[in-house]
Design goal:
- This protein is of the alpha+beta class.
- The protein contains 2 helices and 6 strands; from the N terminus they run H-E-E-E-H-E-E-E.
- It has a 6-stranded mixed sheet with strand order 1-2-3-6-5-4.
- A hairpin with a 2-residue loop joins strand 4 and strand 5.
Length: 125
């Protein structure tokens, strides 16, 4: 993996793990992981072409209060666009439309999932 790519991967981890929950790249959640947690896709953008990125926030609860509050924190952190710096560059993360969607989980009414739709663009050489 080249240096720019590893910096982008690390910047995405830093951002998504900054909300007080464990954060894992999609499909890397350890078997022993306990809810709540965040998963996120890894997309490598370039300067000229933004690319899509998504995250999922998972909670186990009878209500939507906890997951809604956490998605609200992420929404505020991104605002109109968040610049996530790394050595020699940054990525610009911004919300897609719609930004957040509830995704029902079949078979377990207490398992809550919110899908977050975003785009990123590189701010690097």
């Amino acid at each position: 993996m080249n240096d720019r790519i590893s910096k982008i991967v690390a910047a995405l981890y830093t951002f998504f793990s900054g909300f007080g929950l464990p954060a894992y790249p999609e499909d890397t959640v350890p078997d022993e992981a306990q809810l709540p947690y965040i998963t996120y896709s890894i997309s490598i953008p370039d300067w000229e072409n933004p690319t899509s990125l998504y995250a999922n926030v998972y909670y186990r609860s009878a209500s939507f209060a906890g997951i809604s509050a956490k998605v609200g924190e992420i929404d505020e952190a991104i605002g109109p666009g968040a610049v996530i710096p790394f050595e020699d560059g940054a990525i610009w993360l911004y919300k897609g439309t719609p930004f957040a969607q509830f995704m029902p989980m079949a078979g377990d009414p207490n398992l809550k999932r919110m899908y977050l739709n975003m785009s990123i663009q590189a701010i690097t050489e």
